[in-house]
Amino acid sequence: MTTTFRQRLRRLATTYGVWIFMTILTLLPIWWMFVVSMRSRVELFGRPNLALTRLFTENYSNVLTDSTFQRYMTNSLVVSTSNAVLVMVLALLATYALSRYKLTGRDNIFFWLITNRMAPPAAFLLPLFIMFTRTFRIGGWTLYDTQIGLILLYCVFNLPFAIWLLKGVVDGIPIELDDAAMIDGAGLGGVLRHVILPLAAPGLAVTGILSWVFAWNEYLFAANLTSVNARTITTGLAEFVTVTGTNWGELAAMSMITLIPSAIIVILAQRYIVMGLTFGAVKE
Amino acid sequence: MRNPRTGWLLLSPTLIILLIFGFAPFLYVLFVGFNQWNVFSADDGLVFNGLDNFRRLVFDDDFLHSVGLTTRFAIFAIGSQVVLGFILAQMLTRNFPGKSLFRIIHTLPLMVAPIAVGAIWRLLVIPGFGPVPFFLDRWFDLTYQIGSYPDQALWTSVIMDVWHWTPFVTLTMLAGLSAIPREPVEQAKVDGASRFQVFWYVTLPFLRPVLLTTVFIRIMDAIRTVDEVWMLAGGGPGTRFTGIYIWRVVFPRTDYGYGSSISLITLYLTIVLCWLLFIAISGRRKGEVE
Fold this sequence. Notes:
The structure holds two protein chains of two kinds. Chain A contains twelve helices and two strands. Chain A is mainly α. Chain A has two domains: 56 residues; 210 residues, MetI-like fold (Orthogonal Bundle), CATH 1.10.3720. In chain A, strand 1 and strand 2 form a beta hairpin. The longest helix of chain A has 34 residues. The two termini of chain A are 26 Å apart. By secondary structure, chain B is an all-alpha fold. Chain B is 74% helix and 1% strand. Chain B contains twelve helices and two strands. In chain B, helix 3 packs parallel to helix 7 and helix 9 runs antiparallel to helix 12. Classes of the chains: A mainly alpha, B mainly alpha. The interface between A and B is large, with 98 and 99 residues.
């Protein structure tokens, strides 16, 4: 089948037409939020003007110099990074176990792992709240309002997803490679480090990235299981709306700031994200 | 050579964390679901009432309404995402200048926190200074007010969800499409199959596992959507999805027993739906091996 020059040209024109349209649709809401973040309270009302009228940075400086906001930001960074690392390690071990060992009820365990992600969050807040404030209690210390509490809790949502993503990756690594390494005298740790880790690296990277983003973005549990010390940035975002008289400019500025790390990650990890999102459904 | 005990050992940290923070709360909800427990009622302890909560649920118009809304939300949102995601992924399989830039921009919404997505869309539709109501009124003479028109609120939630999650579908579809071997497609073209036939008989069967997995994940997350819709409409009419309804029962009303039983039913329905999809996915893969 040969395609003529005109057909190719038309196809290219359609492609660009669709993508430019999609790009505008994607960016317009974000652009509007940026515009709002650059306006004072008074300037917002009246006829909506989609153009950037002036560089008004007070909203940003207000948010960034606020010590509460800085604490929320640090908490978010600590919680999401630790959670992502923990999830990557645990998920790799678990996936290796599910992939290589004949465990009784393997498929059921796998499905049960996934069901952990399905729970409607609202009702599960209550038992978790009780657990955080009363069950795990050592002297005056409880899990409530601690970073470690959130780090462990987010595993409930991230581990199933991570294991699901990695399952296909590890299944795709020929078992002969493990055997060869073992014959050469490698132990379990050696196989994991020198065979599985390098080959699963792209998939593992995606797992880590998505776990990080999820933990960074989570709101409901962070809002209800922390009070002062371990509050995260998303809860701060919501506080702007509930406190009397929403300051839309600062809300928009804060949303823009939360968006930046995620945007950087997307740009840096773009290649891996596509490679890793196969969920084991694809085998070459 | 491979001792299952080592396997269990490797799996144990994951199992322990999920048992404590996933399964224990589930057991608790299961227990409370069969009790009457309302902090504001006269006897504020747990009173076992068997299946009463579930009987009440079947006749609870608000609950049934929320299930209907969630279903409509999920069908419209996921349907559009799959169609749109497939078309876009198909376009990304060919090379054209600027492709990676378009893809990066397209992926952006996926990474935005749900609560921020809600904030973004709220800023767009808010009466007073949001551009959407303003321009709809000026150009089409249409009154747009998500606080007063349930249908508009529902559609806005759907559009917001499509904006947020289509990139995810595009990416999984792209991963699926890139893994399809070239020969069957070429062969079908040589045999004179039309573009639709190639799609229907060759591409689609290859894509089926990825497609089902994607739908599975989207259903799972769409049913438990709370943050973004809450931020968008504050639980106004037309957006009282099951997740939000549970929230309202558990928190403002502190009807823990009833809230727990609604959660159980919702969880049960989700699991059944996803189990069917899971069987469809793994059944297909077993078929391929044989």
